[in-house]
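Hello Y.,

Per our agreement to keep a running log of every chain we model this quarter, I'm adding this entry. I've kept the format consistent with earlier entries: sequence first, then predicted structure.
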Amino acid sequence: TLPLIFINLGGEMLYILNQRLSAQQLQIERTQRIIRDIIGQMLSEKFSKELFSPQPVYKKREMRTVFEKLAHSSIMKLNASSMGKLYDLMVMAFKYQLLHCRQPRDILLITFNHH
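Predicted structure for the entry above:
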């Protein structure tokens, strides 16, 4: 369960950050670097081993802390308010997608879209 939640929330985080950075008219090279740094952390060997090891699903606060560390693994820094809004948007978007699933296979299709 944890890998599915993480991959989907991570995908949402990348979509939202890309949208926000583009809206701020940040240089494309800088935007690409931020996104690349975060993806690199998400797919790092150390992170993947921990994510795919058998363990209970993280509590809400723990999950938010993981994504806060991910967001700050790049040159971008978010204040607490911005991080809170980002995390809330990530969760809201994923929940919205889950609510529209008619069968378990749909959850995998959402995940494939985020991966």
